[in-house]
Design a protein that fits this description.
CATH topology: Rossmann fold
CATH superfamily: NAD(P)-binding Rossmann-like Domain
Low-confidence stretches: none
CATH class: Alpha Beta
Helix content: 40-55%
Number of domains: 1
Mean pLDDT: 94
Number of strands: 6
Largest sheet: 6 strands, parallel
Strand content: 5-15%
Structural class: alpha/beta
Radius of gyration: 17 Å
CATH architecture: 3-Layer(aba) Sandwich
Number of helices: 9
Distance between the termini: 25 Å
Order of helices and strands: EHEHEHEHEHHEHHH
């Protein structure tokens, strides 16, 4: 498997799954743009990736803001070229009792986790359509597959990502573009250790011990699946949900 010569955008790339994906893409030879609201984090990561000989740029982007997304794509065109791969990974988690959910909080989760699919994908699809080749990989969540208490907004947004993936895959399949999604299970990331850990009410190790494999996943596990779906080895796979969850959910 190789991504040599491919040009990719990874959102939410300052840490966790996004960073691991950008690193894996670089190892496979792809040029990468790292997007995140954490400008310092993606700038540091891009500097490290350039040392491997590929092109890597960092942009501070709110993925729900069309103006910022379009400007970042323009920069990508100027410094790297046409977009061939998009990884819609940026997202936020939320633990809150349903009856305590405000419309403002609900809208924030939907904007970042789901509206971003519309904004980012529309911005790069013209490149893929012109090339008659493209890979779109969306990061959803096993919480949308199983349900999860106190995560109604998050699970609903990620369920939307799964539905978005299936519908768009049907629409662009004949154009040489594949659209797939990867739902992580319990993955040890900075986001989980932040707001997520407080919401879980238990340690990561304690919760991971209850899973079939008895351990948490690593961002690199997800990056490997995403890299496969981005490669030519996966050119007959589209509309697919590739669960990477240590056995939490079987589909």
């Amino acid at each position: 498997m190789t991504l040599a010569g491919k040009n990719a955008i990874v959102t939410g790339a300052a840490s966790g799954i996004g960073l691991a994906t950008a690193q894996r893409f670089a190892r496979e030879g792809a040029n990468v743009a790292l997007w995140d609201i954490n400008e310092e984090g993606v700038s540091r990561a891009a500097t490290e990736l350039r040392a491997s000989g590929i092109k890597a740029i960092a942009s501070r982007v709110d993925v729900s803001n069309r103006k910022q997304v379009n400007e970042a794509v323009e920069r990508f065109h100027a410094e790297i070229g046409q977009v061939g791969i998009l990884v819609n990974n940026a997202g936020i988690t939320l633990f809150k009792a349903f009856m305590e959910m405000t419309e403002e909080t609900w809208d924030r989760v939907m904007n970042i986790n789901l509206k971003s699919m519309l904004v980012c994908t529309q911005a790069v699809l013209p490149d893929m359509m012109a090339a008659k080749w493209g890979r779109i990989i969306n990061v959803s969540s096993s919480s949308a597959q199983t349900g999860s208490a106190r995560m109604t907004a998050y699970a609903a947004s990620k369920g939307g990502v799964i539905g978005f993936t299936k519908a768009l895959a049907q629409e662009v399949a004949a154009l040489g573009i594949t659209v797939n999604n990867v739902p992580p299970g319990f993955v040890d990331t900075p986001m989980l250790r932040g707001e997520g850990l407080a919401g879980l009410g238990a340690s990561i190790d304690a919760i991971a011990a209850r899973s079939p494999m008895g351990r948490a996943g690593k961002p690199e596990n997800l990056a490997a699946a995403i890299a496969f779906l981005a490669s030519d080895d996966a050119d007959y796979i589209t509309g697919h949900t590739l669960s990477v969850n240590g056995g939490r959910y079987s589909n």
